[in-house]
Fold these 2 entries.
Entry 1:
Amino acid sequence: MHRENISNHDRLEKLFEIVRRKREILILTHNNPDPDALASALTLKYIFRTLCNVESVIAYGGVVGRAENKAMIKNLKITIHPLTDITIKNFSVIALVDTQPGSGNNSLPKSILPSIIIDHHRPVRAKSRKSPFVDIRTDYGSTSTILAEYLKESNIHGIDRNVATALLYGIKSDTRDLGRGTNPQDLEAFLYLYPRVNFKVLSRIEHPALSREHFKTFEKAIKNAMIYKDVVVSDVDRIDNPDSLAEMADLLVRLEGINWSLCLGTFQDDIYFSVRTTKTRERADRIVQNMVRKIGSAGGHTMIAAGKVDHSFIHRNDHAATINTLISRFLKGIKREAFQGKNL
Ligand SMILES: [Mn+2]
């Protein structure tokens, strides 16, 4: 854990010191933001507005792909801008949520050190420690849990229901309904938020209409799945949004007898992948870091992790060869390299 041993109260004070009387505040999520990132950004904005009387702007890199995430933005009225529409140098304070500098999954230029970093991913990046405000809790199931603690500490009267709904969904989706990579604080935050949630809206977010493209990706993920003992690997090939891989990896790891899943796909010439394990004692974050050694970036948690190989590397090599490298490094990392792949 890389946070100073200070209370949430002192942490909020420090946060307020940084933003008080500032006018241009940017809150940036990781690329292709997930519910945890969106909820964390929304809550930070809400806290700044309600307690410091300062406005801020939420931005993201990549695309909002998943139908659930689009439904979340729409139903909870989250105002969010693509980073390409933003002039970063106009902002005097930059906050990163659910990501860190140098993790490879956000679009903040390398030359800029954010003033605020709130995250729960491993590894803690060396650059993060240089920031004036760092709250990285790698033992937490979600960044939303940290923001829920801030909210509780702040004693805002009558918490906004959209904010509570977003945070509860952020916790739920990062921890697969509190069953994966959670600690007692996640449950405590969940219970704190529960009475304030709009469940009708939450249900609409969790069960949106799904595109034909989405079902085609499912079809490919299942058709291309290969089994190596208790491991399932699927190269989904072209995908219409990078975060569909997380969904496919979540789906395939539920196959009976399976302990690991790896789903790979290609989006705008970059290769993305997601890893899942059912084993609580494994370190998926370490496995993925080994997979991208010298060719990309990756990180995550004990049971879920993800990474990316940039097209700049792939051009010099062969796309298929890069996919093969990732798969063989993965199988080697989990000591299953001796097994022959069989169709599902
Ligand atoms: Mn998260």
Note: The first helix runs from residue 8 to 19.
Entry 2:
Amino acid sequence: MILFPDMYVKNAYELPYEEMHARGFSGIIFDIDNTVAPDNGPADDKCRQLFAKLSKMGYKTMILSNNDEPRVKSFADDVGCDYVFKAAKPSREGYAKAVKKLGMKKDRVFMVGDQIFTDILGAKRSGIFAVMAGKLYWKERAHIYLKRILELPVMAAYFISNAVSHFGAKQH
Ligand SMILES: [Mg+2]
């Protein structure tokens, strides 16, 4: 199912980055808003520490955002990585640009985002491993809030199908 993430984590700060690195991933494409920072808000210390920790681990990181350049650039500069702005996610174009900038094969890259119909769908369409991170904050712009309502049945189906396959696996 193209709308289902390959992995779900409570939030981007609780992703098993070490484990993913050991699995062969070395590039990460991040959404900003409500994935690693508040919607339209600046990076905080926790956020800066995350990016520093990832680069120490050996990851190359990239920002992929539908937001405009001033917001995306100032955030990317703050955490110290490159960026693609006005990405028009779920369009594949921005993902291709981001992977090219990372300079590695896309099977070594995973994407972390909080929205199904932009972040996850775009990654899946691009053949990039998609990690859905639960949103960090409740406050967000109205158009995003509307998409949350549309996400509900998809996430419900995702969790049900995971529960079923987990249960099925236990039977063997
Ligand atoms: Mg977002």
Note: The beta strands are 7-9, 27-30, 60-64, 82-84, 109-113, 129-133.
